[in-house]
Design goal:
The complex is a heterodimer of chains A (159) and B (167).
Chain A lengths: L1 H45 L5 H22 L2 H5 L1 H7 L2 E2 L5 H10 L5 H10 L11 H8 L7 H7 L1 E2 L1
Parallel strand pairs in A: 1-2
Helix pairs in contact in A: 1-2, 2-5, 5-6
Chain B lengths: L1 H32 L9 H18 L4 H31 L16 H9 L12 H13 L22
Helix pairs in contact in B: 1-2, 1-5, 2-3, 2-5, 3-4, 3-5
Classes of the chains: A mainly alpha (159), B mainly alpha (167).
């Protein structure tokens, strides 16, 4: 009898923990998507060449944005760590559209995501027998990117 | 005396065409090494290179005034494409300014002239702004080689003159 009460308390506690974790993940994801959207708007206002980026990706971004909370909610740790979320949204370097690349880069917190997405597309195709994406690294290095930016970009890509 | 001047002009004409041809070869190597074909606009350089080669052949083997004039027109077209190339390179660098980590934070706050200056001097971006000028130089050589070309003189057509051929 006493053990069953403890079991009920434990299961309630577990349930509450799970609910709190899911709620927290949803809140974090919502904040993240808001920040991304505002970042895109700021970027589009900054340069005329980027103006088409958010407009072109907004409709397509909706399904991905809807899917990401589900992925984040399944793992509270993933929701708490943006880097982990970034790795979860890996896209194919050879076949992903610019919009998909941009969304993946934005999710990974890479600055100037739209511009980097265009650069990744420009230097295709990437050899499938080069998982380190050495060709892409070499091309992107010409732009004098910040420390770790190329690593972040490569971390969001697959072949 | 006239024959001597004509001979010197012929040598200079051949020399100009050789300079144009060598410049074209160098540009071709440079474009190939740089993989200058990743975007459609980059193919303009290859087309301009081919047009320059055609212009060289037209002027070198000119048997008629029409060929020389066509060579001139093609050379002018290439010079215009070189101007386009310089602009494209500078604009490409301008677009890449925000990617340079030294200017990423301050790019938005820089004045327009400052941004364009950084792009034109290749302080930001990977594109050499004056590289397309090599095409302009080659086509200028072709243009100079057409000055007082024998084929443009009234009278019977002169024999063709290939680069390096003996007078």
């Amino acid at each position: 009898m006493h053990q069953s009460q403890i079991g009920v308390r434990l299961s309630r506690r577990t349930l509450l923990t799970d609910v709190a974790a899911v709620a927290g993940a949803l809140v974090l994801t919502a904040c993240g998507s808001t920040a991304t959207t505002s970042g895109s708007i700021a970027g589009s206002a900054a340069t005329p060449t980027q103006a088409a980026g958010p407009a072109a990706t907004s409709p397509a971004a909706t399904p991905a944005a809807a899917a990401s909370p589900v992925a984040a909610a399944s793992s509270p740790a993933a929701a708490a760590a943006p880097a982990a979320g970034a790795v979860a949204q890996r896209v194919n370097a050879n076949t992903a559209s610019v919009a998909e690349l941009q969304r993946a880069f934005e999710a990974a917190g890479i600055p100037s995501a739209a511009r980097w997405a265009r650069e990744v597309e420009e230097y295709r195709p990437y050899p499938t027998d080069d998982p380190s994406l050495a060709k892409l690294r070499r091309e992107l290095a010409k732009y004098n990117p910040g420390p770790g930016v190329v690593d972040q970009i490569v971390a969001t890509l697959t072949l | 005396m006239t024959t001597s001047v004509d001979g010197a002009a012929s040598v200079l004409r051949r020399g100009l065409l050789w300079v144009a041809a060598i410049t074209c070869a160098g540009i071709a190597v440079e474009l190939a090494v740089d993989r200058h074909w990743t975007t459609p606009i980059q193919l303009v350089a290859w087309i301009a290179l081919a047009v320059t080669a055609i212009a060289i052949v037209l002027v070198a083997a000119a048997g008629s005034a029409a060929r020389v004039r066509l060579g001139r027109i093609l050379a002018v077209v290439v010079m215009l494409s070189a101007v386009l190339g310089v602009w494209e390179h500078v604009e490409s660098n301008y677009d890449a300014g925000e990617l340079d980590f030294e200017y990423a934070a301050s790019w938005e706050n820089l004045s327009e002239p400052a941004r364009w200056w950084l792009a034109a001097t290749k302080t930001v971006g990977p594109s050499p702004p004056l590289a397309p000028g090599a095409l302009a130089q080659a086509s200028l050589c072709v243009l100079l080689a057409t000055l007082r070309h024998p084929a443009l003189r009234p009278g019977p057509p002169t024999r063709p003159m290939a680069p390096g051929s003996a007078e």
